[in-house]
TrEMBL record:
EC identifiers of the protein: 2.7.1.56
Enzyme category, top tier: transferase
Family that this chain belongs to: Belongs to the carbohydrate kinase PfkB family.
InterPro entries assigned: 1-PFruKinase, Carboh/pur_kinase_PfkB_CS, PfkB_dom, Ribokinase-like, Tagatose/fructose_Pkinase
This protein's name: 1-phosphofructokinase
Amino acid sequence: MIVTVTPNPSLDRSVLLDRLDRGEVHRAGGVHVDPGGKGVNVARVLTAADHSAVAVLPTGGVEGNSLAELLAPEAVSVVEVPVEAATRSNLTLVEADGTTTKINEPGNALTTGELEALRTRLGEVATRARWVVASGSLPHGCPDDYYAGLVRTARGAGAKVAVDSSGAALAEACAAGPDLLAPNLAELTELAGHRPADLAEVAATARAVRSEGTGSVLVTLGEHGALLVGDESAWFGTSNARRVRSTVGAGDAALAGYLLAGGDGPEALRSAVAYGSAAVELPGSRMPTPKELRIEQVRITEVDESGRLYPMSP
């Protein structure tokens, strides 16, 4: 079983537009409302692939009720931690060419008692888990080291831990030594303090992160694919999306795909890239299912210390 914990979940409303023009009145071509939050998205992908998954999350207000209701038709198992503040809502504007503009609410603050209740509930559920995925932003006012505490809680329950966040929360989580770190390029840049200029520098930066105690590093690179740096080697995976419709949740789908394929090595990376590519071809915050994958089109190459690529067989 894989357990996800999302301290700052959301209702995601996606509005489809021909083109976004600032200051103008627009007529929407369509609207999707989906359950949101990075850990929630991971759980949705896992469940759609018939993998046992549980989403642990705080819910509050009408929005929190709606979030749980939207997950029910997808058969996602949810462990709710009731909180006083309303769950946030996010808005995504998706243009016809795939350009995506996101407007994310910060998320209402949780009390110290509510944060502790979420950590405690995770520890209880994690005793049955192979992996725990702690992901997404933290709600307003939450301590930067909250994910670091969740890493220690999940490890204490006997689970491996993957973390996907940003900023100070990601840096603090690294110090706790998660088994897997799953940043995108912008998050890796923020963590390292400089933007890698090419694939060789991305690999070197990921190796530097690993040297500080993280197990493996899975870096999603948008339309360029993904890079995995593990114990003994590094691999680069790429595929071509037929049509980019929305980039929302593509990194979450990639992380789920990686864990579905065992959470280690080049074949797990192949699955990650296939899931990420499938996600961008879907509207709004829809998550891909196995039937929407084109895994045979994913290309994997090994990356040496200099950044040179060595193709692997499909």
